[in-house]
Amino acid sequence: MSGNFVAPYVNLQGRAREAIEFYRGVLGGTVEVDEAGGRVTLARLDSDGMVLFATDGHPKFAPTVGDNMAIVLGGSDRDRLTGAFTALAEGGRVKGPLQSHGGGPEVGYLLDRFGVNWIVRIG
User: Fold this and answer.
1) Closest Cα to residue 115, out of 45, 55, 64?
2) Residues 83 and 121 in one domain
3) What angle do CA 6, 11, 17 make, to 5 degrees?
4) What tens digit of pLDDT does each residue of 29-80 get?
5) Would you say residue 2 lies in a domain?
6) Closest CA to 14 of 59, 51, 49, 46
7) What is the pLDDT of residues 74-113, one digit of tens each?
8) Closest CA to 33 of 44, 49, 47, 19
9) What CA–CA distance (Å, rounded) separates 103 from 123?
């Protein structure tokens, strides 16, 4: 995926593979799935310009209703996305700082002042 993008991110608490395959059946497209320890850490559906991210989440941190969805803001423009992360966090709460996870992309989590969850992904 080139350039910057915005896409929904859904925590399906153990049902990400089932859900992403269902959505692929409905919408078509291709699916990429990353797993660790038998859990889906990130699944991505790409279909005609539409993107959907899903995860099994963390077994120790079950989401509450309304907290199981986020908007992903991602791309490769580090300055723009770092600035967006900082601006979105103003008046809200950083849940996870913008940092690299195991040599992969930089990812940060926050709740903005309107109660919307965001994941900013650089790389």
Assistant:
1) 64
2) yes
3) 100
4) 999 999 998 999 999 999 988 899 999 988 787 887 778 899 999 999 999 9
5) no
6) 59
7) 999 999 999 999 999 999 999 999 999 777 899 999 999 9
8) 44
9) 11
Residues 93 and 116 in one domain: yes
pTM for this model (two decimals): 0.75
Same domain assignment for residues 68 and 119: yes
Distance of CA 80 to the CA centre of its chain: 18
Domain count, the chain: 2
CB within 8 Å of 111: residues ≥ 6 apart: 92, 93, 95, 117, 118
Angle at 72 between CA 44 and CA 29, to 5 degrees: 25
DSSP letter at 62?
Answer: P
Single-letter amino acid, residue 72:
V
Chain mean position to CA 6: 10
Residue 23 DSSP class: H
